[in-house]
Amino acid sequence: MALFPLLSVTPFAHFPARLEILTTKTPFLLHEALTPLFLLFLTLLLYPYKSFLRNAIALPVIVGLYVRFAVLYSSSHWGLAFCVGAGAYFGSLQAFNLLVVKDVGRDEDVRWMIDDTGIQSNGTTHGNGTIGSETHTTKEGRPKPNGENSPTGNGSTNGTANGSSKGVSKVSNPGLGYPTLATYPLRQRARFTFSLLCASRGVGFKFQVRRVKPPPSPSDSHISFLVTHFSYIFVTYIILDIFGYALAHDPFFYTAGCWKTPFHPPGLSQEHWTAICFPASIPQDSTTRWLYHNIVRKYLSLFAVFAILSQLFSIAAILFTTPIPITAPSSWAPLFGPVHEATSLRGFWTVFWHSIFKKGFSYPGEWLAYKVLGLERANVWAQIIIVFSAFWNSAALHGVGAWTANGRGVAAAGYFVIQSAGFLVEMVIIKLLKALGVDEKGVLGRTVTFIWMMVWGLWSCEVFFYDFLAGGVAGSEPVAWSTWRWWTGEGEAYRWGPPGEWMRWDANSLGGWGVRV
Predict the structure, then answer these.
(1) Average pLDDT over residues 267-280
(2) Chain centroid to CA 500: how far?
(3) pLDDT digits over 133-143, tens only?
């Protein structure tokens, strides 16, 4: 019962470049990705205090392993190839941040504020060390529940959510960290170090990013946590299944001459582009096709990115709280912020969109602005440096990821570079609104910034997708098993090939126990 004529779109399982990798290129080996991360873990565990000698020995080795990893799998043209480059860049940046920018052994913000591992228990002695029983109390003198002493609303370190301290008297809560942690048993210090490496958003630590939605309370039901994330996986599966079907039936995504950006004109004339880069079901008139391209395609692609990130996050949340219980639900604050805050470019990036890399991207800028240049936090140039640091590091991560996927990454990187310019333009717009007496948070102010965000986003997003389309991403499959394609009669339901081929032991590494993906 196929709804459209079946097109000859090659499933990812039989993508020519993927078959070439499996037969001629070095297969992706899981331990090669984990080795530099393990070395960083050992370095921070054995000597958490910043020193020139430690960094001179450890940092070049860790970064060198990441560079080798990225180069080894460059131009792979396969589903995980983007993750190879992006992971290598962020791993190198994380090592730089934790070894050079931060001093894990001395910095006061590298403190554990939420106990979800059993290491601290409010005044109980653990091994050779103790953690004090400092708590927050309400006006009536009752202690607040465990987990509410942490920065959950606005990321500040004052221990109150959303910046409000009404009715709460604060008692000092320094959190758990070094040097106190140095007296704890090795197992507990290893747990702390592992959590630090995984806390890219700082959830549960004093350095938590601002405006993250509160995580589940330690007193919340674990069942409700699992139900929430399984429901996210189900909804995002539906989105990705529909997206995969749309990709297969829209010639724009797999026809090279159709791809374009403001900086890359299409390889076809406008007449030919309009004629061949749309599904036959879309009416021929220019207005409908403009709306289809700029609204339907772009928003469907945005929803797909949102769904992929949300699904991976929920899978990881379930995996590392239930079958591998090394964290608790209170470590898993929601990935995305409230969508109603996305009424400006700043609101979209700083509040709504995921903050997985936000702290890591901004640390180098903070280090340069505050420590190297000695600028005040309220200084305009300091804020500009931090904004540019965040977006340029994001540009590098996505650019390197696109490069390992298809050998090119200028457009993917360029998208995030121009976002920093978009921030500056928006700052000018907001200042003009203030000069005209318009409240930025009022109806008119939000309308103006929302229109600006939409115009800028629709204009610039094609830059981001260009390298990925050129890399054959549209020839991949977003779901392993497609209910929709099975129902419409498009062959077998599984889209990644037999499950036994997804991962297998590699006979030529680690004595036959290396994992080949």
Answers:
(1) 82
(2) 28
(3) 343 333 334 33
* Predicted model pTM: 0.78
CA–CA distance, 110 with 99 (Å, rounded to integer)? 13
Burial of 193 by CB count in 10 Å (0-12 exposed, 13-18 middle, 19+ buried)?
A: buried
Compute φ and ψ for 129, nearest 5 degrees.
Answer: -130, 165
Task: State how far the Cα of 296 lies from the Cα of 302, in Å rounded to an integer.
Answer: 10
**CA–CA distance, 56 with 165 (Å, rounded to integer):** 44
Angle at which helices 81-96 and 358-366 cross, to 10°? 40
Tens digits of residue pLDDT in 170-190: 445 677 888 888 888 888 888
**Assigned token pair, 141:** 């003198």
The 3 state secondary structure assigned to 103-125 is: CCCCCCCCCECCCCCCCCCCCCE
Query: Would you say residue 238 has pLDDT above 60?
Result: yes
Pairing label, strands 514-516, 504-506: antiparallel
Please tell me the distance from the alpha carbon of residue 130 to that of residue 127, in angstroms, as a whole number: 8
Check residue 147 and give left, alpha or beta (phi > 0: left; psi -120 to 50: alpha): left
Q: Could you give the CA distance from residue 108 to residue 114 in angstroms, rounded to a whole number?
A: 15
The pLDDT value recorded for residue 127 is: 38
The SS3 call for residue 280 is coil
